[in-house]
Amino acid sequence: MVRGKRAGAGLVKLFRERAEAAGAEVRTSATPAAARTAIASILEELGAQTIASAADAKAFVPAKFRARLVRGDKAEDSASAEAGLVLAHFGIAETGTLVHLDRSDAGKNVWTLPPVCVAVLEACAIVGRLEDVLPAITKHLASPSGFGQVSLVTGPSRTADIENVLSIGVHGPGRLVIVLIDTIIGKKA
Amino acid sequence: MSRSRIDPHLKSVLAEFSRNYLVKRRNALMGQNFEELRTLLAEMKDASLERNAELLDRFEAEARRRGNEVLRARDGDEANRLIADVLGRNGAAKVAKSKSMVGEETHLNDFLSRRGIEPRETDLGEWIVQLEAEAPTHMVMPAIHLTRADVARIFARRLGRPVPEEIPALVRIAREELRREIFTIAAGFIGANALVAENGAVILVTNEGNGRLVSTVPPVQVVLASIEKVVPTMADAALLLRLLPRNATGQVFTSYVSFIAGAGDHPRTIILLDNHRSEILADPVFRQVLRCIKCSACLNVCPAYKVLGGKEFAHVYMGGIGTLLTAWVHGLKESKAMAGLCLGCHRCEDYCAAKIKIADLVIALRERINEQTGSPLWKRLAFEGVLARPPVHRAAFRAARVGRPLLSGKDGYLRRLPFPFRKYDRFRAVPAPAKKTFSKLFNKSGLGGDQTASRGRITIFVGCLVEHFYPEIGMDAARVLKALGYGIDLAPAACCGFPSANGGFPRSARKSYEKLMEAIRASETVVTLCPTCTTMLGHAGPDLVGDEAAGLADKIISFAEFMERKEKKGLARVLSKRPEPNALTYHESCHHKYYLKAVEATRSVLETATGFKIKDMIETATCCGFAGSFSADHPEVSEALLAEKIEAIKETGAGTVALDCPGCLLQIRGGCRRQGLAVEVRHTAQLLAERLNKRNS
Fold first, then answer.
1. What are the pLDDT digits (tens) for A139-166?
2. What is the tens place of the pLDDT at every residue in B199-243?
3. Residue in B with minimal Cα distance to A75
4. In chain B, positions 98-137, which contact chain A (CB-CB < 8 Å)?
5. How far apart are the C-alpha atoms of B343 and A167, rounded to whole Å?
6. Does A142 contact B249 at a Cβ distance shorter than 8 Å?
7. 244-303 of B, contacting A, C-beta below 8 A
8. B217, A171 Cβ separation under 8 angstroms
9. Alpha-carbon dihedral of residues B257, B261, B263, B264, nearest 10 degrees?
10. How does pLDDT run across B271-323, given as a tens digit for each residue?
């Protein structure tokens, strides 16, 4: 994961506002360990029996869910999980967007198929605008040998196709919960 | 054309949609400089189109390097065949599709069905219209014409069980049904919002996430993209993404944006479709059509689309931009009816993300349509036989004045038209020609001929409607100018050429325009009372004859703008400002707003000079439905737009409607009269003249 300078408090605040405006839920944790605890409680609230996770979010799987983990390789498995646990590589403050440098279809499945998507984002990975993260995206897409795909996800799946009324969760997750690891806020608290 | 072309339910859905869209869009563009961004986008797209062939080669090479297959298709049939071949080769009996307007353009679903391959639309709206065996009626909202009850009925038929008429339940069904099928479907098909040359990436933008499902789950992948989608770099793509969601749906960003460069775990075939786009590229006038990023903003603000919807105002593509695309990808003939539905209000041009001169281009297209497919006899007669020949034109009106007692009642309006012409005046009383023309009244009045005018001389050009129907507006304008100290010269009472140009008869337009310009070229300032004439004389006419060097736009100026720029102090001197007890509302005439950008001038003049406080009506900048010959070609659309305008006027409770265009005045005043609505409809010049001091009037 590419890390820039830690995002200023202003950016983190803006990210949070914009993500929430797009329909995402944002929970802040001070440390990775606290994030794991927060994730555990989110999954417990859901009563999740199985969760799907790709390799890059492995470190955030709460201990008690390790036995109930499916990997995303098989789309059906991801689809049958109650939640997907993923790691976002960047956040874009201006639009409340999560950026994932896809490395396999499995990763994309976990982001897309379960009804709830729990995404971990470190505050230091928040940038201001899409343009600020373009070098990393471009680099990821450049390699002819790599998987070469990138996903930008903003809020849950939505449609307004019937009578222009907004509905959530049509084909992708109906809930997007962002667990934001923000060490500075953690210290203040 | 029958009245049933307008579906009242759809009309109200679209009206609400358009209003919501404007609010959401404004919020989404907060903090963005739309003008600057769209200028950059237009420049970027122009530069990309300039080197389209080179960029396509680069895209192809980069996409291949990453394991994709890239094929080129000359036309829709070839694209369909290539797609069917890929699917057939991989044994796919069914293909899951993400929404693609280009797939609609090639009629891919029909083609695949005939080949025994079942297309399965996954975008909710697109799936609904597929189940109903219809075509999308909006580029972003395919099923906007259907209600939740319609959708419940369609789903019930599909599932063979009753379905609740509730949107969340319907959305859940769409999810469950796709989930049931998607894991067994061998192939996925997507369109592309952009192609990036530098890395061979396909960019896919969806809100529902169906694009992600379709582009990830099925083992075989097909992409269909038209050639103008290619942009050089990721930075260019980022610019496009900054505008697309904001302008399309009023979202700051779309839920899912995928960059798909590497083939990943699946073989992927990308088909690049030309389908006559190379011809558009080679056309210096129409090339800018290919800047379009399919945001649909033009549809969302189009008054005619709002009334008719995307079944009537469409071939496959909809609205004004759709008319232009249709002319090439489906043929000039197919675009003919659509070209007639453009009001020429130019509103879309203010909203276009790529600064495409949509309405101007539709006018240019009408010319080609007339040349190549013929034009109605009555129009040829009107434009070439009458308007372009001032003596014939004058004689026609003279005859009408002679026949006036027969034609009109005492109130100055024409008698009701008999069946089958009722549709033309049912909604709007039509004025009879005035007893005396403006020229005649003016020449008799002694308002001209003052050689010692303190403020110099000014030429006034009133336009046909004032000359023949509303001479009092011309007289009022002259009185105000005279009071301000100007000596007044009259421009000849001839047609400016706009109606011909607008109808696609550039030869007669040029003739009228040049003749008139000859007469007024020497004038220092020409004040006009009709924004449409002003548009013609200052902008469209010079473009038509390649007369840009003349700098005419600066000296031909609407009455309101002239007052705002030159005579604010003067007006304060000659007008008595009195507090107005009645509220006044202001109708923004299309050419005055979207072409001349002059409505702020009127607002400022009205508020500072008259003491009126303007109470805005909703959608004040939406066409009243007159639009010249449009109201004769499409009376039912004209009627619907006028009804909305009058409703908006009523809601303000204003006793007076101000406006700057005699055409709008004819329409709105005639409509109010039919409805028995006691509202004064006045030209800005009249409102000023009413307030001339005693000693000046």
1. 999 987 778 999 999 999 999 999 999 9
2. 999 999 999 999 999 999 999 999 999 999 999 999 999 999 999
3. B217
4. 122-125, 128
5. 34
6. no
7. 249, 251-266
8. no
9. -70
10. 999 999 999 999 999 999 999 999 999 999 999 999 999 999 999 999 999 99
Identify the CATH number of the domain defined by range B49-278: 3.40.50.10420
CB-nearest to A75 from B183, B234, B257 is B183
Q: What is the ipTM for the molecules in this complex?
A: 0.95
Average pLDDT, chain B: 93
Q: Which of A17, A97, A159 best probes binding to B when mutated, by most B CB atoms within 10 angstroms?
A: A159
Going from the N-terminus, what domains does chain A have, and what CATH number goes with each? Answer: 11-157+172-188 (3.40.50.10420)
Question: Looking at the predicted structure, is the pLDDT value of residue B565 above 80?
Answer: yes
Among chain A residues, the shortest Cα distance to B139 is held by A161
Percent over 90 (pLDDT), chain B: 80
Would you state the pLDDT for residue A3? 43
B604 class by beta-carbon count within 10 Å (0-12 exposed, 13-18 middle, 19+ buried): middle
Could you give the CA distance from residue B302 to residue B282 in angstroms, rounded to a whole number?
28
B212–A111 CB contact, under 8 Å: yes
CA distance A1 to B631: 62
Q: How far apart are CA B94 and CA B189, in angstroms?
A: 10
CB-CB: which of A94, A109, A142 is closest to B199? A142
Q: What is the pLDDT of residue A150?
A: 96
Note the pLDDT of residue A185.
Answer: 54
pLDDT band at A72 (very low <50, low <70, confident <90, very high): confident
Domain chopping of chain B, boundaries: 49-278, 438-689
| CA R_g for chain B | 28
Residues of chain B with C-beta less than 8 angstroms from the C-beta of A80: none
Task: Tell me the chain B residues in contact with residue A164 when contact means C-beta distances shorter than 8 Å.
Answer: 13, 16-17, 20, 141, 144
In Å, what is the CA distance from B486 to each residue of B179, B457, B605, B691?
Answer: 76, 5, 18, 18
Pairing of strands B268-273, B220-226: parallel
Considering only the beta carbons, identify the residue of A94, A151, A161 that sits closest to B258.
Answer: A151
> What is the residue whose two structure tokens read 């070469």?
A148
Half-sphere exposure of B614 (CA within 13 A, CB side): 23
Of the residues A170, A175, A178, the best mutation for testing chain B's interface (the one with the most B CB atoms within 10 Å of its CB) is A170
Task: Give the pLDDT confidence score for residue B1 in this predicted structure.
Answer: 43
From chain A, the residues in CB contact with B255 under 8 A are: 22, 153-158, 172
pLDDT at residue B260 greater than cutoff 90: yes
A76 contact residues in B (CB cutoff 8 A): 183
Q: Does a cis peptide bond (omega within 30 degrees of 0) precede residue B420?
A: yes
- Cβ-based contacts of A154 with chain B (< 8 Å): 252-257
